[in-house]
Specification:
ion transport, sodium channel, 262 residues, mainly alpha, sodium transport
Amino acid sequence: MNAEFREMKENPSHCVKEAKEVWALEKEEASRVIKDFGSYTTLHGFHFILDSGSIIRKIIWITLISLGIAFLFIQFRDNCRKLQSREIVISKDLERNENLLFPAITICNQNMMRKSKIMGTDAQTFLDQQDTLKYQILGDSLHSKETDPAFNIEESVKNNSHDLSEMEKISENDEKLKFVIVAFRKRLALFSIYYQTLDTEVTEEKPAYDLNDFGSDLGGNMGLFLGCSVLTLCEFVDLIVIMCLRCWRKKIAVEITQDQRH
């Protein structure tokens, strides 16, 4: 085809009729390209518009494809708004530990000081006066006993608080397991282990709708309403490029014809 254009430029004697023939050939070639595109494109129903001889059937398929495009656009708009809203969700999961090493427990002692060290001292009187439950039982008699003015709560906590070295007993091997049990029995009246309470609760904050969800919804909607994918869009881009090149060739043919008329 480019050779025909060069021949027209070099030989001004070519008439308008030949330019019209070139125009007609390009038009037929464009129609053939579009028809071939309808036979291999993955857009469902598109080939019925080009191959079907019935006008009613063409109208039906044009309507169906138009409705599919409209629904796809509506879903795309809603998904874009959902993505731009940047909503956040907080999820909580329980991670269960199947294999636990004994003793895998935590004992929390809420007492500030050891009872055996402060019995009958000002520290015991001070703690009793802070206990609202005892006050409800004993009433004002709880405050009848006064503490020594020289009593210092900070010093008392330092001297009488719990010593980690005395509280912590770790079983390094099976031979010391009996000793650990004895140590627990000396310090606790009742010792129960509930493995189900040792589950880990994981709290996670994450976007309610991210780009991965948007891409998944877009691909699903394209397949649902039009039966196509992203590659189908590439097919249409390829067709548009081919048609633009043919329009450019037609424009050159018209310019050559106008030059011959002048």
